[in-house]
TrEMBL record:
GO terms for molecular function: ketol-acid reductoisomerase activity; magnesium ion binding; NADPH binding; protein homodimerization activity. Its cofactor is Mg(2+). It catalyses: (2R)-2,3-dihydroxy-3-methylbutanoate + NADP(+) = (2S)-2-acetolactate + NADPH + H(+); (2R,3R)-2,3-dihydroxy-3-methylpentanoate + NADP(+) = (S)-2-ethyl-2-hydroxy-3-oxobutanoate + NADPH + H(+). InterPro entries: 6-PGluconate_DH-like_C_sf (IPR008927), 6PGD_dom2 (IPR013328), KARI (IPR013023), KARI_C (IPR000506), KARI_N (IPR013116), NAD(P)-bd_dom_sf (IPR036291). This is Ketol-acid reductoisomerase, chloroplastic. One of its GO terms (biological process) is L-valine biosynthetic process. It comes from the Eukaryota. Residues 99-297 form the KARI N-terminal Rossmann domain. Its main location: plastid. It holds the Pfam family KARI_C.
Length: 587
């Protein structure tokens, strides 16, 4: 399949748009790839091209150029804390403020949690078990009297799992959801996003005046905004959002007990503060979770970057990337086992390990000269097809469309309106994932897979495209790097390497699982239909893209963040169980 003249004509129209300066054209509007092959389709009418260019393309081009751009102006993320030490860091010339974590700070938790006698952890899904246990252990280490209590709906099968983790009705650390909400000074609402959307009114009505609502995701704010609503004015609203799934939060905390604190980085936000305690409570919560460093964001920026990120490189996009690459390699004559190793094993193993410890440039620099050419061809052809989907995805999240989609999908899990229930099915029975089972069964313990130049080029192009979209949308470098890089290579991908991408897609949070199923095919098709066609037709490499990748200021920011990364690498055994309780029980 060759690129069509329709595509070429459209790009030629872009290049000839009079409202864009020649200097902009030289760096931003170079064709991604061209072809002189004839098209099976009629060219787009000139009037339609002109209309499309005038109303849409100029704006896209202006926002999404190839030249690395500075982070857009954002709301000031400075904050005041009377308990912890705030530190200023510089990321690619942008000043940000963080709080470093560590077990040596646990004695400060009582000061941070002043006025709090009970922390209610509501839900036992992805984040609930990890956060509840980390909080309990950290407070015990601090010899604090603050109680951590789990709240579950009556009849929930998760009661047994909570009891197994040491929470019991007898000692007052396990009980009914509504009694726990009503009796807690800090309510950590860690039920699924769709459940929050259906139950927020009841949660608000049970909370004590001047109590604090804690979220680990900004989804509920996005849902309320879509309805023209806000949180009650008599409670504080904060967020601490670990940049990794719950099992990673717990796994690294346990590993770090022998040293001074290893865990998952977290962002924090203060959305509403009724009595001046919110910032210190949020920072205390993050320190107690074991966060190596905590950075500031807003609740709105958090949900936009988080929901977008999990549909992008954290889950949905990487799912689509490995599916299309595996298919491509097998069609080119590679054995299925070798194709799997050069896709999934490469990305979740050696590429992730290299990026985690040395950064993206190290992946490129470790290749041979011939390997670099393959990397560049893949990167050049994949960057814009990935960005196109990422751009659309971000705007769907920001507009509330994706949030509405999640809420409606959650309601379709149950019978209603005379229609049957449609819970999510699994993806792990297709041929690719069965091949993966065989590969992992015979894999040596420390085998990180081969460093495939083409696969590496596609993956890094995806990562850089996501970074650029978040930059243009005004997110801080801390948030950009954590959502596009650290969470992937230090939290999610090690679990994918242990159990497979399909296992993650089938067992992570409901919102992420829905997002992967919706967006992964889009990345698959766009790469197959655009990027791979360009490579196979011998399209010239966009040297501007390669040059900009090699000199992008994000690499300097990544070096700074690398010094703040967890002090140990996460260790995930091949039988690591991170199945959510309700999924394990149903299966």
């Amino acid at each position: 399949m060759a690129a069509t003249t329709t595509t070429t004509s459209f790009k030629a129209a872009l290049l000839s748009t009079p409202s864009i300066s020649s200097s902009t054209k030289s760096t931003v509007l170079k064709p991604r790839f061209t072809s002189s092959s004839s098209s099976r389709y009629s060219p787009i009418p000139k009037s339609l091209i002109a209309h499309h260019v005038s109303t849409k393309t100029n704006a896209i081009v202006a926002k999404m150029g190839t030249v690395p751009s500075p982070v857009s102006e954002t709301t000031s993320l400075d904050f005041h804390t009377s308990v912890f030490q705030k530190e200023k860091i510089s990321l690619a010339g942008h000043e940000e403020y963080i709080v470093r974590g560590g077990q040596h700070l646990f004695p400060l938790l009582d000061d941070a949690f002043e006025g709090i006698k009970q922390i209610g952890v509501i839900g036992w899904g992805s984040q609930g078990p990890a956060q509840a246990q980390n909080l309990r252990d950290s407070l015990a280490e601090a010899k604090s009297d603050v109680v951590v209590k789990i709240g579950l709906r009556k009849g929930s099968r998760s009661f047994a799992e909570a009891r197994a983790a040491g929470f019991t009705e007898e000692n007052g650390t396990l009980g009914d959801i509504w009694e726990t909400v009503a009796g807690s000074d800090l309510v950590l609402l860690l039920i699924s996003d769709s459940a929050q959307a259906d139950n927020y009114e009841k949660v608000f009505s049970h909370m004590k005046p001047n109590s604090i609502l804690g979220l680990s995701h900004g989804f509920l704010l996005g849902h309320l905004q879509s309805l023209g609503l806000d949180f009650p004015k008599n409670i504080s609203v904060i967020a601490v959002c670990p940049k990794g799934m719950g099992p990673s939060v717990r796994r690294l905390y346990v590993q770090g007990k022998e040293i001074n604190g290893a865990g998952i980085n977290a962002s924090f936000a203060v959305h509403q503060d009724v009595d001046g305690r919110a910032t210190d409570v949020a920072l205390g919560w993050s320190v107690a979770l074991g966060s190596p460093f905590t950075f500031a964001t807003t609740l709105e920026q958090e949900y936009k970057s988080d929901i977008f990120g999990e549909r992008g490189i954290l889950l949905g996009a990487v799912h689509g990337v490995v599916e299309c690459l595996f298919r491509r390699y097998v069609e080119d004559g590679m054995s299925e086992e070798l194709a799997y190793k050069n896709t999934v094993e490469c990305i979740t193993g050696i590429v992730s390990k290299t990026i985690s410890t040395k950064g993206m440039l190290a992946v490129y620099n470790s290749l041979s000269e011939e390997g670099k050419k393959r990397f560049e061809a893949a990167y050049s052809a994949s960057y814009y097809p990935c960005m196109e989907i990422l751009y659309e995805c971000y705007e769907d999240v920001a507009s509330g469309s994706e949030i509405c989609s999640v809420v409606l999908a959650g309601r379709r899990f149950y019978e209603k309106e005379g229609l049957p229930a449609f819970p999510m099915g699994k993806i792990d029975q297709t041929r690719m994932w069965k091949v993966g089972e065989r590969v992992r069964a015979t894999r040596a313990k420390d085998d990180l897979g081969p460093l495939c130049p083409f696969t590496s080029g596609v993956f890094v192009a995806l990562m850089m495209a996501q970074i650029e979209v978040l930059r243009k949308k005004g997110h801080s470098y801390s948030e950009i790097i954590n959502e596009s890089l650290i969470e992937a290579v230090d939290s999610l991908n090690p679990f994918m390497h242990a159990r497979g991408v399909s296992f993650m897609v089938d067992n992570c949070s409901t919102t992420a699982r829905l997002g992967s199923r919706k967006w992964a095919p889009r990345f698959d098709y766009n790469l197959t239909q655009q990027a791979f066609v360009a490579v196979d037709s011998g399209a010239p490499i966009n040297q501007d893209l390669i040059s900009n990748f090699l000199s992008d200021p994000v690499h300097e920011a990544i070096e700074v963040c690398a010094k703040l990364r967890p002090t140990v690498d996460i260790s995930v055994p091949p039988d690591a169980d991170f199945v959510r309780p309700e999924l394990r029980q149903s299966s």
